[in-house]
Design a protein that fits this description.
alpha+beta, binds manganese (II) ion, Creatine Amidinohydrolase, 34% helix, 14 strands, binds glycine, Creatine Amidinohydrolase, Chain A, domain 1
């Protein structure tokens, strides 16, 4: 695999270079300088939060932990990578990996946090607020010019073969974690131990995950971004929802699985199967030309069918969707673009950079694009029993079967999520 990967990485860099140069010619810049960023200590403390380098920097250079570093892409000479490598006996000094991509750049190892000298005709892309913290004066150039930034974001929307290889490998590694998490749940472990089993099997430390793993048992499965890990197992085990990822060379997997606990009502088991089937039916529709907003609306029709077929709603599919019943059972979007960021850039813009906001009724949808080959998206239908969203419906005459809803409340909810590349004639599911 590594020979193919390195060949693909070189082609990826070659393509990025020519795309950046076209943009420099179009918008009249001499160079584009990408700042990787840096972590700042907690207030009043000397300890640092976890750092991850800026997405546009990682788009070129697979060094997710490179702080205070710059990649300057020139119109007329090789790109220069200024990699921060302090003389530091407290930490292991930065070393360049022995990989072929390093030959594509002129590389300077910098012992100080250093800003390259840039001319006025440079577009500087990165976090200017953090840059100001360690520089008396900002470098010359234009900071984050909007039109160019949108065009660079758009380059990240369409993945190269290299990026798809990375996303597939991230998925493979994450799935080993998901299998271990499921086994730990079967062994009656608590949330924290399931998280530790996930991290061990997916071979990563917690500071390297692409997003905080969501490991929720029982009602926690209905907290969309549940952020804690209980340290003791509950006496009853109804459900486990694991939404957990893995990075590979900066690229993120974002996979969710929901598992049945021994104490769940039988209906919950059939609902889990129904939601896996919904996921697969939605994925089967992925192809170039598909409008993601329309597919999100189809998810709501699918959810209405599930509610009706399982006796949770005794009205029509149209009523369930029109009256917001399906939105109360699933308040998030169908999915999003995936790349070096788990919620990748440019999802709410057109290909030419115009705003394409989420529809008013679906404000949490993060992708409103028409699909094209090379996009990588998540498909993550959910069905939850969230008291805050369902309670207001109890005072209506909507034909919801509250007896069943109350039986399912302790299960929290269901989400299943795969990562899919759009191909020339369909899709390629990257999730094993
Ligand atoms: N893990 C966050 C999400 O699925 O979007
Ligand atoms: Mn997701
Ligand atoms: Mn997820």
């Amino acid at each position: 695999m590594s020979e193919t990967l390195h060949r693909q990485h070189k082609a990826h860099i070659d393509n990025l270079l020519s795309a950046y140069r076209s943009l420099m010619a179009q918008y009249d810049y001499d160079s584009i300088a990408l700042y990787s960023g840096h972590a700042s200590p907690h207030y009043g403390d000397d300890q640092m939060p976890n750092f991850q380098a800026f997405g546009h920097f990682v788009h070129w250079v697979p060094l997710v932990e490179a702080e205070h570093s710059w990649l300057v892409v020139h119109r007329d000479k090789r790109p220069t990578l200024y990699l921060y490598a302090p003389n530091d006996f407290w930490h292991l000094p930065t070393v360049l990996p022995e990989e072929p991509w390093v030959a594509e750049f002129d590389i300077q190892l910098c012992t100080d946090a250093f800003t390259p000298s840039l001319n006025d005709n440079t577009a500087i892309i990165g976090n200017m607020a953090t840059l100001r913290e360690c520089e008396d004066a900002l470098p010359n150039g234009q900071a984050n010019p909007e039109t160019l930034t949108h065009a660079l974001d758009e380059l990240r929307m369409i993945k190269s073969d290299y990026e798809i290889t990375c996303l597939r490998e991230a998925n493979r590694l994450a799935m080993a974690g998901h299998e271990a998490a499921h086994a730990a749940f079967a062994g009656a472990c608590c949330e924290l131990d399931i998280q530790l089993a996930y991290l061990a099997a997916s071979r990563q430390r917690e500071s390297h995950v692409p997003y905080a793993n969501i490991i929720g048992m029982n009602q926690h499965a209905g907290v969309l971004h549940y952020q804690h890990y209980d340290t003791s197992a509950p006496t009853k085990r109804y459900s486990l929802l694991v939404d957990a990822g893995r990075r590979f060379r900066g690229y993120s997997a974002d996979i969710t699985r929901t598992h049945l606990g021994p104490d769940a009502p039988a209906l919950f088991e059939t609902l889990i199967s129904a939601m896996y089937a919904v996921k697969d039916r939605l994925i089967a529709q992925l192809a170039p030309g598909v409008d993601f907003v329309a597919l999100h609306e189809k998810m709501h029709h699918e959810l209405a069918e599930v509610l009706i077929d399982h006796g949770l709603f005794r009205g029509s599919r149209e009523t369930a969707v029109a009256e917001g019943v399906t939105r109360a059972f699933c308040p998030h979007g169908l999915g999003h673009s995936l790349g070096v960021q788990v919620h990748d850039v440019a999802g709410l813009r057109t290909a030419s950079g115009e705003p394409a906001p989420a529809p008013e009724k679906h404000p949490a949808l993060r992708l409103t694009r028409t699909l094209t080959p090379g996009m990588v998206v998540t498909i993550e239908p959910g069905l939850y029993f969230i008291p805050m969203l369902l309670t207001p419906l109890r005072n209506t005459d909507l034909p919801i079967n509250w007896t069943l809803v109350d039986q399912l409340m302790p299960c929290g909810g269901i989400r299943v999520e795969d990562n899919i590349a759009i191909t020339l004639d369909g899709f390629d599911n990257l999730t094993p």
